[in-house]
Amino acid sequence: MAILPPGYSIRRTESRDYEEVVETLKVLTVVGDVTRANFDETLAVWDSTTVKSGDREIRAYNPHVIVNADDRVVATGTVLIERKIIRNCGLVGHVEDIAVAKDQQGKQLGLLLIQHLTKLAHEAGCYKVILDCDEKNVGFYEKCGYRRCGVEMDHRL
Whole-prediction pTM value? Predict the structure, then answer.
């Protein structure tokens, strides 16, 4: 099991992370013109959206960051917990938007973040955790314990 470098920690994403989360996500994809107000509103919605897991209410959106000793965001990712009809109205975790700052790559931070988010999904009672990725990232996710399963499709609007 990988270990965080000294001084690094994983925590839930907070409003103060706005600039660094947006910047880190640019490593992954086009972010767009996300304002602080947009960011804070999204976090507020995420913080208040829950799903039932047995007799517990759990957060459906679980955005997390890895920060270094200076409290700088160096990696970000989310696990979304979805309630299904299938599998006895079971829960599925969706890992989304994993990004590691360019100057922090090679420190196993992506692996650590994936492990953390997967553990959160397991603790929530999910029967599986899934993710979509580019072909070039399949090897990385296999190292994280995931396996190729099915085909991703999208319909851009």
Answer: 0.94
